[in-house]
């Protein structure tokens, strides 16, 4: 162990002596990191190697985007190695993942607790929680809400509301920990903390809800409003049952809750991104009657109560253009139009008789739509809900009728059609008088005045008025502008009416009439960047820049508070703000000033505006003006990214002035909303509300709030005040919006602001699905990444002291931990901090440096509860930790390998001894068994040799038998095969011979058939003669054989007679002479081949005449003769059988010879015929090529003569066409004959006829002087005769062919 400790010390010293940066970057490691991806923004990977410039990573490949997660690659099937450039990453280092020892993501509820807090860590933490059905996550004081696209009932019950109120409002915090750490993130914590801040601390509160369209901002505001209404009832209020849209007992609270959906009907519309998108910004100020803190403490309450007394609402930038224009297939205009048209018929008739039997397509501003339900409710159901909500704020009866008739006026304005006047093109008339009269009846004015106001413009110059007619285009634009203005002023009237019904000053009966505490809910449009960005996007992004400035300041303030609590110097914090962008927009030489100047200047236009902005801000880095931009295009570097704007119609949209004629016709209207509200831009009808609020609130703590409310009344200036303004620029849209925005920011600065950032996780509205690219873009636009950058500007990473000492305990030097424990034993409370300081001072010593003042700057700073690391310090520690773990792992492996090797050696030794004894035993036993086996083998061998000899003898006999059998069988099989082959050949030849005459008879002429028949008869005669000659020869041979046999028999008979006579004469002769005579006679008979001997002598007479010896000789001779007789009979029988076989073979041979001769003749004829066909084929091929060339030449001639042929008379043209068709028909006939005709002579004759026809046609063509002469002077006489003969012969040939 001492050697191992020395080894570790040497390894540690060697590691600490090298350059720390190279040590961090050149070591091989396997850290879990994130790398950039063009498709998925950030993807997890494992760092394999880095050299400071490039890094090699292993990127796992997942099934799809939703399967990508920080799991160490276990969810993927494959991976790939990729080299990335470190220059593309901040601090030239890859972002580390927040994973545990097994590579799994460490999910946190508050992302401030992430050890590695960056954009990728935020993305994957949000995705992990979103897939688990957790839509809310906090980042310090910011709550991030991902739209789940489904309703979680368990998150919004009355018990959950009460839990958050109890934890964050009614319970007394002990200060030891943040009470939010005991509950999960929720938007309820923002509303609960805002309520506590108002009731306990006495500070006005505000909650900013932002996000892009479809992210759930409006729904989040509803949830906040519902929770605040629940909390304000008090701690001991009994939870109400969970009933959707339950009615509250307090009518004021109910009006406040119902006012929000009421504005949705008039200010929300369906867009491509969201079916219920708010097309205006809204700041809802909830007014609370706060209890005096002293009275609440005297009553024993933990927190003063705040009763919801009322509310006031301010709206910003209503999208007026949607009244007249929207994408008909994918979008809709405002909900109220569809709701009104979907109402019951009797109700529509009460508002206006012109609505009878109308639908969406009856009005141009509405048009066709496929969407008839919003969030599960039809337009008809929502209309009834809207009418009920209007009744709650006092809009019912005649007022409701006037409101709906204003909506009808807007609809009817869209149906007017403007056409040029037939008498004067410069003037305009309304083509449909019925629509004009209906609109006039709705407004309560005369049709003449209305038409004049819509088609004529009154211009005032030097106290004189001029009537200028408008063309049809200008009149239509004026009509649309009038409709938009009516709707916008009606919307403001509705806001004022709602404020009158809900404001505490007019409705609260609890005692006070002013000095209310405020909790503001700001629901405003998020940062927007489209393919084409116009004036509306510039205003929206300007508002977001202002809000981002406040957001940045609030984040900086929270970081200040954190560092002050931890005891860290504030000088370490640096951050970038967006002051330069705001200066570009609202500065003295900014966009607002030049746009107002162009609006005031006669002839001001959009090009002049862009040109001036470029001339004065071309050096501003936030201004973008590239060479390929057109004249009205420019860009701005916003905090969320670069946006290119199209300044077309900027000046017109900024003017926003209604002409005098339309103002006058509005004043004449009998509808009070149009007559009185068209010049009212206020949002509150209280003339002295701000003053009253300021006076009463001065008695309380915050007099500044009254001043802010007084400033906020500026947007509510009356028409007379606005007319007294010294500058016309105050009437522009941007000026009014800037004034509203300034007032809003002043109000927000006086409040404690809390932020809720709504995120739209995917574009196809699917639950539990998150798209990386769009989510990251929204995080940047929402300022979450900027907040992280500010909070981690000086110290990107932070860890608790206990986590530092536990995670990096491997960095302790030998004996250093004991010393640190001894020094920390005196102060147990500071023990984690002391241990962390001792550990990090030693471990991060290579990263420490000396600054200009001579002080040593460590790579870390210790706070009260956390350790803050500078850039690169935590990565260095992770690298050192991995190397130390690798060293310890090597040592552990060394001991493990030694133990394993020794155990293996001992085991192998005992096994070797056992194996040796076993081998010796096996060797002796094997020798004995070998000898025994050899003996048995020799005996077996001998017996095998003897048996083999016997077997060979038997096999030899058996094989000889088999050979004989196979030989005889092969002879028979060969004979059978030859016979069968001959039979098949004969059958084939016979079938061919049978078919050929038929084929020849069908094709050959009668002459050749007669010739073949004569030849056949000659051959038959010859065969008959040959057969007769053969029969005669056989007969003669038989006669000769029979004569020879008879002669031999006669000779034998004579010999026997002669022998008998000699025997009779020499009876008394010697025996020897008789015996020799008999033998001679027998030998003579046998040598001559006598077939049959008939001896008729009587043995009894011979016996009497011969002696005993002679009798014996005669008996032997008789027996010999009998034997000879039998042999002769046997030979005769064999001869007869052989003769019969010979006759059969002879007959077969003759037949085969005849068949062979016939086959040879047929083969010769066929061969000759094949040669003739080949020659004919070659000839036809040559003729075909010639025909093709001739056809090409004729085609060329035809093209050359085509123009001339068109000039000829119809008769000649018809003749030429008939001749061309004749040639084509003839060519088709020739091709058909070549394909189907098998008789070469007939085909040759037909081709010859075709050649004759073609030659005659060619001669008839070439004999003329020229094609022109031929066409002009045809000779139908000779040509028609030859053609008729040619046609008749050709048709005869074809008929014979088909027959």
From TrEMBL:
This is Myosin motor domain-containing protein. Residues 106-882 form the Myosin motor domain. GO terms for molecular function: actin filament binding; ATP binding; microfilament motor activity. It comes from the Eukaryota. Residues 704-725, 1056-1110, 1257-1286 are annotated as: Disordered. Residues 1056-1070 have a biased composition (Basic and acidic residues). Belongs to the TRAFAC class myosin-kinesin ATPase superfamily. Myosin family. ATP binds at residues 211-218.
């Amino acid at each position: 162990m001492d050697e191992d400790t020395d080894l570790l010390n040497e390894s540690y010293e060697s590691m600490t002596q090298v350059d720390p940066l190279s040590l961090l970057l050149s070591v091989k490691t396997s850290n879990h990191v994130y790398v950039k991806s063009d498709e998925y923004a950030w993807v997890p990977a494992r760092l394999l190697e880095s050299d400071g410039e490039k890094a090699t990573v292993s990127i796992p490949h997942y099934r799809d985007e939703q399967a990508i997660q920080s799991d160490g690659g276990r969810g993927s099937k494959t991976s790939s190695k990729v080299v990335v450039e470190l220059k593309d990453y901040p601090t030239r280092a890859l972002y580390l993942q927040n994973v545990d020892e097994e590579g799994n993501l460490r999910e946190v509820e508050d992302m401030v607790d992430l050890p590695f807090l960056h954009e990728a860590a935020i993305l994957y933490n949000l995705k992990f929680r979103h897939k688990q059905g957790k839509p809310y996550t906090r980042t310090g004081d910011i709550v991030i809400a991902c739209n789940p696209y489904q309703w979680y009932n368990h998150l919004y019950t009355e018990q959950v509301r009460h839990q958050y109120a109890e934890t964050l409002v009614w319970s007394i915090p002990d200060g030891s920990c943040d009470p939010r750490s005991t509950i999960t993130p929720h938007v309820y914590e923002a509303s609960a903390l805002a309520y506590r801040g108002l009731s306990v601390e006495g500070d006005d509160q505000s909650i900013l809800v932002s996000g892009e369209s479809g992210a759930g901002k409006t729904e989040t505001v509803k949830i906040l409003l519902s929770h605040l209404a629940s909390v304000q009832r008090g701690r001991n209020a009994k939870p109400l049952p969970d009933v959707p849209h339950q009615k509250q007992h307090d009518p004021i609270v109910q009006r406040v809750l119902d006012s929000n959906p009421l504005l949705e009907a008039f200010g929300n519309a369906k867009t491509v991104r969201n079916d219920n998108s708010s097309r205006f910004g809204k700041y809802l100020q909830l007014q609370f009657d706060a209890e005096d803190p002293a009275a609440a403490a005297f009553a024993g309450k933990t927190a003063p109560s705040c009763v919801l007394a009322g509310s006031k609402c301010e709206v910003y930038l209503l999208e007026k253009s949607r009244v007249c224009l929207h994408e008909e297939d994918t979008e809709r205009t405002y909900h109220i139009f569809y709701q009104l048209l979907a109402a019951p018929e009797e109700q529509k008739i009460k508002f206006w008789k012109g609505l009878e039997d109308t639908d969406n397509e009856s009005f141009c501003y509405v048009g066709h739509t496929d969407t008839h339900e919003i969030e599960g409710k039809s337009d008809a159901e929502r209309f009834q809900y809207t009418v009920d909500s209007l009744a709650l704020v006092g809009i019912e009866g005649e007022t409701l009728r006037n409101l709906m008739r204003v909506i009808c006026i807007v609809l009817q304005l869209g149906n007017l059609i403007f056409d040029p006047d037939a008498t004067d093109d410069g003037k305009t008339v309304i083509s449909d008088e019925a629509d004009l009269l209906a609109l006039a009846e709705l407004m309560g004015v005369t049709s003449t005045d209305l038409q004049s106001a819509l088609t004529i413009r009154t211009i005032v110059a030097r106290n004189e008025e001029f009537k200028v007619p408008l063309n049809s285009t200008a009149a239509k634009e004026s009509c649309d502008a009038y409709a938009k203005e009516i709707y916008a002023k009606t919307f403001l009237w509705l806001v004022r009416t709602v404020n009158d019904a809900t404001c505490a000053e007019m409705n609260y009966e609890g005692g006070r009439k002013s000095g209310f505490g405020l909790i503001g809910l700001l629901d405003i449009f998020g940062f927007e960047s489209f393919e084409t960005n116009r004036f509306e996007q510039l205003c929206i992004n300007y508002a977001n820049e202002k809000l981002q400035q406040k957001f940045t300041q609030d984040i900086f303030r929270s970081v200040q508070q954190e560092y002050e609590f931890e005891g860290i110097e504030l000088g370490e914090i640096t951050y970038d703000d967006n002051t330069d962008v705001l200066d570009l927009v609202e500065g003295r030489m900014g966009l607002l000033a030049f746009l107002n100047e162009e609006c005031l200047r006669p002839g001001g236009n959009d090009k002049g505006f862009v040109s001036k902005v470029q001339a004065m801000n071309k050096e501003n880095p936030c201004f973008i003006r590239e060479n390929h931009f057109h004249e009205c295009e420019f860009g701005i570097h916003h905090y969320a990214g670069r946006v290119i704007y199209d300044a077309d119609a900027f000046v017109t949209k900024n003017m926003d002035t209604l002409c005098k004629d339309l103002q006058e016709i509005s004043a004449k209207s009998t509808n009070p909303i149009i007559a009185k509200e068209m010049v009212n831009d206020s949002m509150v009808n209280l003339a002295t509300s701000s003053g009253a609020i300021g006076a009463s609130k001065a008695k309380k703590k915050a007099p500044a709030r009254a001043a802010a409310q007084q400033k906020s009344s500026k947007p509510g200036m009356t028409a007379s005040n606005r007319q007294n303004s010294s500058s016309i620029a105050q009437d522009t849209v941007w000026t009014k919006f800037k004034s509203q925005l300034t007032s809003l920011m002043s109000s927000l600065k006086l409040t404690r602001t809390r932020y809720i950032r709504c995120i739209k996780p995917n574009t196809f509205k699917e639950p539990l699905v998150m798209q990386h690219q769009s989510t990251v873009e929204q995080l940047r636009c929402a300022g979450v990444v900027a907040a992280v950058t500010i909070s981690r500007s000086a110290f990107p990473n932070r860890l608790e002291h206990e986590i530092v000492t536990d995670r990096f305990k491997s960095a302790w030097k030998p004996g250093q931990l004991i010393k640190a424990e001894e020094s920390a034993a005196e102060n147990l409370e500071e023990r984690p901090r002391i241990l962390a300081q001792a550990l990090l001072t030693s471990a991060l010593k290579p990263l420490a440096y000396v600054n200009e003042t001579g002080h040593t700057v460590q790579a870390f700073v210790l706070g009260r509860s956390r350790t803050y690391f500078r850039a690169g310090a935590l990565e260095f520690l992770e690298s050192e930790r991995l190397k130390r773990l690798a060293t310890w792992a090597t040592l552990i492996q060394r001991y493990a390998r030694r133990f394993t090797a020794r155990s293996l050696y001992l085991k192998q030794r005992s096994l070797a001894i056992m194996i040796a004894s076993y081998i010796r035993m096996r060797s002796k036993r094997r020798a004995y068994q070998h000898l025994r086996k050899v003996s048995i083998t020799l005996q077996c061998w001998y017996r095998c040799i003897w048996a083999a000899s016997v077997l060979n003898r038997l096999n030899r006999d058996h094989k000889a038998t088999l050979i004989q059998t196979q030989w005889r069988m092969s002879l028979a099989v060969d004979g059978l095969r030859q016979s069968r082959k001959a039979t098949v050949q004969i059958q084939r030849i016979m079938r061919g011979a049978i078919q050929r005459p038929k084929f020849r008879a069908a094709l050959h002429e009668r002459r050749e058939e007669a010739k073949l028949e004569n030849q056949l008869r000659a051959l038959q005669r010859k065969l008959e003669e040959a057969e007769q000659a053969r029969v005669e020869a056989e007969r003669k041979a038989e006669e000769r054989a029979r004569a020879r046999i008879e002669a031999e028999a006669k000779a034998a008979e004579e010999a026997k007679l002669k022998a008998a006579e000699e025997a009779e004469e020499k009876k008394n002769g010697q025996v020897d002479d008789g015996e020799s005579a008999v033998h001679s006679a027998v030998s003579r008979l046998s040598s001559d081949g006598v077939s049959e001997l008939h001896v008729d002598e009587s043995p009894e007479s011979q016996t009497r005449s011969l002696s005993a010896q002679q009798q014996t000789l005669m008996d032997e001779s008789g027996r010999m003769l009998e034997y000879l007789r039998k042999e002769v009979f046997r030979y005769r029988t064999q001869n007869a059988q052989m003769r019969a076989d010979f006759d059969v073979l002879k007959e077969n041979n003759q037949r085969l010879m005849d068949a062979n001769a016939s086959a040879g003749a047929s083969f010769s004829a066929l061969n000759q015929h094949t040669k003739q066909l080949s020659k004919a084929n070659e000839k036809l091929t040559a003729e075909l090529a010639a025909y093709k060339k001739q056809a090409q030449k004729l085609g060329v001639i035809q093209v050359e003569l085509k123009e001339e042929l068109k000039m000829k008379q119809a008769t000649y043209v018809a003749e030429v066409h008939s001749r061309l068709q004749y040639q084509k028909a003839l060519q088709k006939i020739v091709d058909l004959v070549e394909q189907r005709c098998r008789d070469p002579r007939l085909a040759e004759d037909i081709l010859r006829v075709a050649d004759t026809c073609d030659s005659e046609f060619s001669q008839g063509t070439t004999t003329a002087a020229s094609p022109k002469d031929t066409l002009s002077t045809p000779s139908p006489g000779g040509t028609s005769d030859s053609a008729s003969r040619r046609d008749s012969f050709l048709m005869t040939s074809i008929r014979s062919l088909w027959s």
